């Protein structure tokens, strides 16, 4: 049984001109111990699809799916209370902008201990000990002192590590990492990726990596889903995708990588595609 199984997921938002499909009939699954990368340009619906799973979209969003199951449980039919028990414990997410995702009014220690109190039922001393252990695990220096810091007192990379600590605090079975290295310098990017892959290998959790960086995909993924304007264009194991892409959009995406540039300008995806190539999705 797949850890997460989604069939024909559609997410729509109401606009002044009608309903807009941000996700259009996407299907995917991920198994325990597997790394699934979802790749595509900004606005392709990668994050929206996962926020739908997490139940974090506005109530005005229209979400439909033939199937949305976690370990065989229908997520769509869970009561709000049961969904809160699941999300943050068995399914966790590292959000794209860690500084914006952390509450500026509370210390990072309070925020990680809150997760441990709600989902694990730990006492005060146990929560503090576990928080220090997690901060050490994610590589934060002076973890005892760091617990008392507010997000604005920390760098972007440190806030990202705090977000990872919060996400893995309850040993989730599925971790969703949304652009976990965005806006970080190259050295910190590698440290964060190495940390995620080490945690994934040690715990056997399923990992969904949302990214637009094909280098990250090549380095981390077992399977890859390529999205464009809310639609799944291709799905393949990572080696097949890079060596023999089947969809015109995937070929264009790979051809537009800077290392494949020729002449005096960078090529873009649109240089390689027509509307016909995308079945009218352009």
Tell me briefly what this model is.
The chain is α/β, with parallel strands linked by helices and 282 residues long.
Topology:
Elements: E1 4-15, E2 18-30, E3 35-39, H1 46-54, E4 62-64, E5 67-70, E6 73-74, H2 80-86, E7 91-94, H3 98-101, H4 108-120, H5 124-137, H6 143-146, H7 156-168, E8 174-178, H8 186-203, E9 206-211, H9 214-220, E10 223-228, E11 231-237, H10 238-243, H11 248-255
GO molecular function, one term: ATP binding
Family: Belongs to the ABC transporter superfamily.
Keywords: ATP-binding, Cell membrane, Membrane, Nucleotide-binding, Transport
Proportion of strand residues: 15-25%
The N- to C-terminal Cα distance equals 35 Å
Name the structural class: alpha/beta
Low-confidence stretches: none
Give the averaged pLDDT, no decimals.
Answer: 88
| Biggest beta sheet summary | 6 strands, mixed
Strand order of the main beta sheet, please? 7-8-9-3-10-11
- State the order of secondary-structure elements, H for helix, E for strand: EEEHEEEHEHHHHHEHEHEEHH
Q: Based on DSSP secondary structure assignment, what is the total number of beta strands? A: 11
GO molecular function: ATP binding; ATP hydrolysis activity
Keywords: ATP-binding, Cell membrane, Membrane, Nucleotide-binding, Transport
Protein name: ABC transporter ATP-binding protein
InterPro entries: AAA+_ATPase (IPR003593), ABC_Ni/Peptide_Import (IPR050388), ABC_transporter-like_ATP-bd (IPR003439), ABC_transporter-like_CS (IPR017871), Oligopep_ABC_C (IPR013563), P-loop_NTPase (IPR027417)
